[in-house]
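lol forgot to send this yesterday, sorry. struct tokens for the thing we talked abt
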């Protein structure tokens, strides 16, 4: 992975860049637009961790993570950390940016003392399941909001 890849906090200065990032038109039904993610981050302060992905000065994607969240929402103690959203810009896919995003979230989870990374994905042939499976995620058999849940053990 090239050393020019980096994550950047979403700020007032790069907000327009963030919301301008678009996935391919045939993928729009698979992932919410960045503007929705940023709205969710606003209404879930302290939970959402939105970041732009840059290759040098070029914005190539967006991710939003979460850390130590009550996944079931019922106080059962099922606390998880993971990748909430991943949007790699149209024309930028297949260059390792998605892998970089997952590895960056994994590193942040480890830094915070976590040992597993959770992700959800749109099921079906047109979804990103193959991408996540190649990275080592295993389906848990659960669904959340109609999406498959996968986990990656962070050894």
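and heres what i got for the seq, position by position
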């Amino acid at each position: 992975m090239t050393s020019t890849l980096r994550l950047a906090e979403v700020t007032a200065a790069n907000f327009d860049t963030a919301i301008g990032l678009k996935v391919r038109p045939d993928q729009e039904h698979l992932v919410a637009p960045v503007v929705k993610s940023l709205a969710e981050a606003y209404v879930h302060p302290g939970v959402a961790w939105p970041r732009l992905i840059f290759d040098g000065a070029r914005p190539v994607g967006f991710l939003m993570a979460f850390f130590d969240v009550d996944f079931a929402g019922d106080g059962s103690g099922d606390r998880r950390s993971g990748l909430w959203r991943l949007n790699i810009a149209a024309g930028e896919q297949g260059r390792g940016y998605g892998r970089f995003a997952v590895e960056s979230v994994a590193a942040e989870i480890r830094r915070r003392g976590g040992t597993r990374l959770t992700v959800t994905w749109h099921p079906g042939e047109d979804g990103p399941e193959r991408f996540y499976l190649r990275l080592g995620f295993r389906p848990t058999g659960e669904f959340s909001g109609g999406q498959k849940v996968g986990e990656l053990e962070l050894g």
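The chain has one domain: 5-153. anyway ping me if u want another try
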